[in-house]
Amino acid sequence: MAKDPIPNNPTLVTEEASQKELATTAVGRGVARALSVGFCVALLVPVVAQLAGGGGLGNFAGVGFPPTRETLAALGRSVDDGSVLKKWVQPRLQMLLTGVGGFGNEKVTIGRDGWLYYAPGLRYLFGQPFLDADYLKAKAKGMIDKDGLAVAHPDPLPAFRQLAEDCKRLGIQLVVAPVPDKGTLIGAAQNADFGKFRAAVEGYGATVLPLEKWMEAGDAPWYLRQDTHWTPRFMDRVARGMADSLRGKVWSAPAPLYRLRAATAESRGDLVGMLKLPADQTLFGTERVAIDVVEPVGDAGPAEVLLLGDSFTNIYSSPSLEWGQKAGLGEHLAYHLNAPVDVIAMNGAGATVRNELLRAARTGRLAATRVLVYEFAIRDLYLEDWPVVELGAVERKLISHEVKAPVVEAVVEEKPVAPVAAPAVVADSERVTVRGRIVQMSRAIQPGTAPYEDALIYGKLKVDKVEAGSYGKPEAIVVFLAMRKRVLLPGAGHKVGDTVQLRLVRLKSAAEDIRSMQRSDDTEDFDLTPYFVEEELP
Amino acid sequence: MVFSSHIFLFYFLPIVLLLNYLLPFRFLTTMLTIVSYTFYGWANPKWIVLMLTSTLVDYFCGLALVRYSGLGPQEDGDLPFLPKGEPRNRAQKCALFVSLATNMLILGFFKYYDFGLENLNGLSGWLGAGPLPLPLIHVALPIGISFYTFQSMSYAIDVYRGEARPLRHPVDFACFVALFPHQLAGPIIRYWSIAEQIRHREFTWEKFARGAAFLCLGMGKKILLANPMAHIADTVFGAAGLRWFDAWFGVIAYAFQIYFDFSAYSDMAVGLALMLGFLFTKNFNDPYRAESITDFWRRWHISLSTWLRDYLYIPLGGNKLGEARTYCNLFTVMLLGGLWHGASWTFVIWGAIHGAMLGLERAQGKKSFYSRLPGVLKGAVTFLIVCVGWVFFRAESLAIAWRFVGAMFGGTGDGAILGAVVYTKYHLFCFAVCAVVVWAMPQAWNFTQRITPWKVGVCLLTLVLSVLFMWTQTVNPFLYYQF
Predict the structure, then answer these.
(1) Residue A43 domain flag
(2) How far apart are CA A356 and CA A525, in angstroms?
């Protein structure tokens, strides 16, 4: 005889009663079958649609053995993002939520009169003071538990102190330019701890530019309606203010080096992209702005100003943001200063762009730098991880403009100062084809939460064989294109242990839109020159 | 893996259901154990080692309890119950101690080590000594650890008390601990309540249909109600300066969020278990309709309340050792219940508020001090007290909690940005729907007691709507995963 599945325990009447009640549902056989079958059909529809739509069931092959937290999470994302039904439903439902409900999503807040705001930026403004000990503790916990960081650096001040100390040691003036958030248009101008931050950074010997005070009434609107970034006019005002603060500290040419050419740029804006609306949506049209393209008219010579920045530097300059080219902060700073400006800028990288500064230092790009302008979105102080980056030994070779020596060609990002590092670096080809095994991969890019549509991911390759060109090191930093238009590419799916054959080009020689993309780089290897993966060969 | 995710709903679940109904019964426990470990390891495969350790230790402790009793297997091959009420020998006490110590060590290390060390350092600093020579470890908290350690411990305790017979087969026991419907966020299933079901259970259309109904409604609660409320609560609790009505809006939204989120998980767990043939216990019973805090604790997270009552309050002496000791026990249990949720003083304060209220009400014959008010007002006052408690439960630090409470009773500030984020038509609509569902609709348990054709429509429509909205949201794990 089968035992009673529900034991009789007189001390626990509630549990026993609830189990017994659960076993006796009042439902007819037909109704029970209808609900059961309907439920099962509902579970099967997405998979059937997936197979019928030829979408593939997900990147199960990418999980590998043994599976890791990262590969399993990547599988989950590939299943989710690759869903044919989701791709059809999501934009249309978002249209309804935005159009009728006035709700954006986790990234975008819908404001009045069609204005869109980047939600994390708003959180910086009304959020907890970002230097508060409790906030820092909670931020660190979130970074470890949710973002998977091994070690968190929630406090930005140590990173700025180190950068200021390094700059002082190298004789470089550090100028910090935190860009106010667009949310200042509707409320508080700053997070409660910004004053504390400014005082601390100035105490380290850096200059903190008062960008928020340059939002002059006549220049409104300061931000684009449907984009996270500033208008060309506000950007130009900031460039002018920067130039004023730098004048006298760096060389300026006696004769004009640049001229302006009027142009227009038109786009829907990155915030509309983040809403993931249907391609034919009519809620948000395009926005057109007048920009001033900066054209060189003279021989500029080497740059004494290095502008380190994020997407606020790239907008109107890099094609990756689709708001025109050669009219960004770097170009306008050079115009107002009448001096060349070297630019290192990556989208979404206010905190991590310092890694590129370190790479630049290792390749001699800081040799002539007298002023480092560090531009970043102010919200990064609140949201980002701020590990300390030490520049270490940096070769210096300041320029005397009176004698114009040593002569170095145009100083723009495409043609940086010639490397002065070890001869072995010079021996490596610009283009090389290698075969090897991936020994390290950075954290995966997440299309749903990444702030930009395109992204790169860094990995480290143990080089087994050089198939073409010359490459003399046992390891290489390889940079895969991981995401385009929020669609993960095969490059994002690589994992440690994969054997690959790659056709590479030095990252600094890759297309300009590639170089300005946001990136995931956990390699922490700043001695190797990063190579961009042009093609994965079979 | 999260119940409300694409990969769970459309890949994992259909495969598990298919296997459950195709495989012969003798393979089901093994199958469920394997899929449950897969489910658990999805978040981080390394954490499987912890669950396996806890499981193995408790399994062998269970065997040891019988072995050292001198009793042999029964005729049917099962191991016997230990005789109730009889004293246990030294070896048996040792076996129980090993079980409790192992689980508490696992839980203590991952959940409380940093918290304890920080407080010890603070104390030693206050006393003028330097910090202790121990590092903070900052490890990620393995999900569900509080649930499965409690469940696993309950096995050894139940066997020790003679309330359940130990399992001979380790896979049976591994299945009980890991069973995926309840492993991450409960209900906390005590071993005795499910022991026989692991070996004998029935599969019927009625059970499957009710399970499906629970799952559909649970999905709706999580995706359509809890997640929008999470947006409001996260925003408001993340704000530095609040107007009084923003603060109330935020804390009520959090009250809705935690109820719909947690009860959604419980509903889905009960539903999944039913579809797999198991009968779980009720975890919520309209808690926001409670008319006193005592009443609230009969309705909220019932499986934790009963666990704490049976394995902590009663062993401490319960109400048998005099008035003073009863109040002391009550307060201790609530403090520890608070601490069970997380390693922070905010949870301790939350537990203390509830402990104090329970003590107060006990002193008045288990009646609230507002028991003479009309029923609706009693419910409203209880809800307000619960909301004040939620402030401490949700806030990231005591300082933030106190600031928040201050804002609730007179806060002023610039709320323009906050208002733009949380007072959208969509969120206000969801907020109103939450209120209606809480106070004017039957809960999932009651709604599914009798399933009629129109209820089938409601359930399936809820499921479809939930899935559609799930696709507009980023994956949003259940709140209780972090505990």
Answers:
(1) no
(2) 11
